[in-house]
Write a structure and sequence with these properties.
single chain; 421 residues; alpha+beta; Ubiquitin-like (UB roll); DNA polymerase, domain 1; Alpha-D-Glucose-1,6-Bisphosphate, Chain A, domain 4; 3 domains; seven-stranded antiparallel beta sheet; six-stranded mixed beta sheet; 13 strands
């Protein structure tokens, strides 16, 4: 490749000549040519000379991935790539994806899964996500996470981003698209992607917020599934942090079921939870949590889907913390198993996700142990309340000692490290 030779350019009002080179690139299907110092990085060239500011510069050390663009169809860090090294090559930025068949599927998926908040990392995330879809058509969640690890996001907690990429991969596996397959074949052969359409200025549409009238996402029981386990299971395809647990109650399955579908009674056994109003199987309420330095109070709604025959249910909830504006969604599935006429085991399957500043806490192993301990304490609270109802003694409100529970979790971990002694 013949690179342009530098020449001197004398800045106005100064005696020092600054060497410059003329760089010609095909950017989003349009040839652009500018004289720049040879030390100019591609990201600065695109932003300052071509005026395409959709490419964001973050760390400028090639670490955060926000500046990722496509160079001949391959993702590169534009903040550490010299513009002169790209002479005569094809560059695609976030402004040039309109005709790309992969991006036509990724962008609505990002919107659907709330995979962007401040949007700073989004152009780079999209470029990397496109590469995953083309290069790794069989990627699972673990592989997608590894591939995205070079792109940093400080808002979303990554759950929505991973979910969007997985949805596109799954859709293309079930319904292959000829245009996408052609891009995959070109990538396998090491060929440049087909050139983008010439850059045009699309008409700006009006943004309209949409609200799902069905409320929180509902987990349907697969058709043909039978048995209590199938009815109570939180959907296997759901994305988030999953925790399961169980506890035994000294009551018949029918007695426990009557209690577990009484949502205000259940809330009274969950520390920090309260029900403000109820309409059928839908409730509005509040749940406050505290874990070390983290505290939040989520206001939201929940809908109970129940199977009175199988003695199983799924509670779908969504809420938002008024202070941090973090958003939480979760499905709590529970199923009753009769161990004896007077003993019932309650199986709990919790799937939850956090978006926003609190998302960083949701994947901690310590938090998972904390939640499992809360499930056990919830079982004890249910036992006390049901025993109090039988004896006529007014039940005591549920209480939680975060300090006692935290030390209990730490002690359990120490015992496991010592082999259970």
């Amino acid at each position: 490749m013949n690179l342009p030779q530098p020449k001197a350019r004398t800045p106005a009002g100064g005696p020092v000549a600054e060497p410059v080179m003329r760089v010609t690139l095909a950017v989003n299907g349009r040839d652009v040519s500018h004289e720049v110092p040879p030390r100019t990085h591609l990201g600065d060239f695109l932003r300052e000379e071509v005026r395409l500011t959709g490419t964001h510069l973050g760390c400028e050390h090639g670490v955060c991935g926000a500046c990722t663009v496509l160079l001949d169809g391959q993702p590169v860090r534009s903040c550490i790539t010299f513009a002169v090294a790209c002479e005569g090559r094809e560059i695609t930025t976030v402004e040039g994806y309109d005709s790309d068949p992969v991006m036509q599927r990724l962008r609505p998926a990002f919107t659907k899964h709330h995979a962007l908040q401040c949007g700073f990392c989004t152009p780079g995330m999209l470029a990397t996500a496109r590469d995953i879809v083309l290069r790794l058509p069989q990627a699972d969640e673990a592989r997608v996470r590894v591939e995205l690890s070079g792109n940093l996001c400080r808002c979303t907690g990554y759950m929505g981003i991973v979910g969007a990429v997985l949805e596109v991969l799954d859709t293309l596996r079930r319904e292959p698209v000829d245009e996408v397959e052609a891009l995959r074949q070109a990538a396998r052969e090491g060929k440049a992607a087909p050139p983008a359409q010439p850059l045009t200025a699309p008409a700006l549409g009006r943004f309209e917020a949409a609200v799902d009238p069905a409320g929180p996402s509902r987990a349907a029981v697969p058709s043909g599934a039978d048995g209590p386990a199938a009815a109570a299971s939180v959907p296997a395809g759901g994305k988030g942090s999953r925790i399961d647990g169980q506890f035994d109650l000294p009551f018949s399955a029918r007695q426990v079921w009557e209690f577990m579908v009484d949502l205000p009674a259940v809330a009274s056994c969950l520390p920090g939870a309260s029900v403000d109003s109820q309409e059928g199987d839908r409730v509005k309420g509040r749940i406050a949590i505290r874990f070390g330095p983290m505290s939040a109070a989520f206001n939201g709604t929940a809908l109970l889907e129940r199977d009175d025959v199988a003695l199983s249910a799924v509670l779908h909830g969504t809420g938002q913390d008024s202070l941090s504006q973090s958003r939480a969604t979760g499905d709590v599935g529970y199923r009753l198993e009769s161990l004896s006429p007077e003993t019932t085991r309650v199986h709990v399957d919790l799937l939850y996700s956090l978006q926003g500043p609190l998302a960083q806490f949701s994947r901690s192993g310590l938090v998972r142990d904390f939640v499992r301990r809360m499930i056990a304490d919830f079982g004890r609270n249910v036992t006390r309340r049901m025993q109090g109802a039988e004896s006529g003694v007014p039940p005591q409100p549920a209480s939680l000692s975060p300090v006692r529970m935290l030390f209990g979790v730490l002690w359990d971990r120490i015992r496991r490290l010592l082999g259970g002694r």
